[in-house]
Amino acid sequence: MADPRARRRRLAAGLLVVPVVVLGLAARFLAAGPAADLSGGVLYAVLIYVLLVFLRPRAAAWSNAAIALAFCVAVELLQITPIPATLGAAFPPARLVLGSTFVPLDLLACLIGTALAFGIDSLIASVRAGRE
Fold first, then answer.
1. Pair 114, 49: CB distance under 8 Å
2. Is the pTM of this model over 0.90?
3. Closest-CA residue to 70 (of 110, 101, 121)
4. What is the Cα–Cα distance from 64 to 55, expressed in whole angstroms?
5. What is the per-residue pLDDT across 68-81, written as a single tens digit (0 to 9) for each?
6. Which of 42, 49, 79, 126 has CA 20 to 30 A from 100's CA?
7. Contact 53, 13 (CB under 8 A)
8. How far apart are CA 62 and CA 24, in angstroms?
9. What pLDDT does residue 1 have?
C-alpha cells in the first residue's frame, strides 16, 4: 500500500479496534438497563465501521458506512431466527458477535453507531484536507 493516506487510515483504525472492543464489553458486562443496551449496540456498529476502514482504507467513508449499517441490520434481523441462539449455546462467545434475541431498539443503535463513526471519520478527513 503505497498511499500514505491509506496507511494512516489503516493504522488509526487498527489502533481504535481494542478500545472500542473494551468499551463495548464494558457496556455489555458492567452496565445494565436500556442505556447500556443502546450503548453496546452503538459501539458494535462503530466497531464494524472501524474494521471496514482497516480492511478498506481507500474506500469512501459513505461506502464503509453503508456496508457497516447493512451488516449490523442483517445481524440484528438474523436474531429473529433461532440461528444466533443455537450458535451461542454451542459456542458462548458467538453471542457477543451475533447476539441472541431481536430487539427493535438495536436497529436504532446500528444507525446511531454507523452515523457517529461516519461523522467522525468525515470530520477528520475534512480537517486533514484543510491542512494539506
1. yes
2. yes
3. 110
4. 10
5. 999 999 999 999 99
6. 49
7. yes
8. 23
9. 58
Q: Which three cell numbers stand for residue 66?
A: 453503508
List the end-to-end C-alpha distance of the chain, in Å, as a whole number. 20
The span from the CA of 113 to the CA of 32, in Å, is 19
- Residue tagged 484536507 (cell numbers): 129
For residues 129 and 81, give the distance between their C-alpha atoms in angstroms, rounded to a whole number. Answer: 45
Report the residue count for the chain: 132
Kindly report the CA angle at 48 between 13 and 32, in degrees rounded to 5?
110
Q: How far apart are CA 89 and CA 83, in angstroms?
A: 10
Cell numbers for 73: 441490520
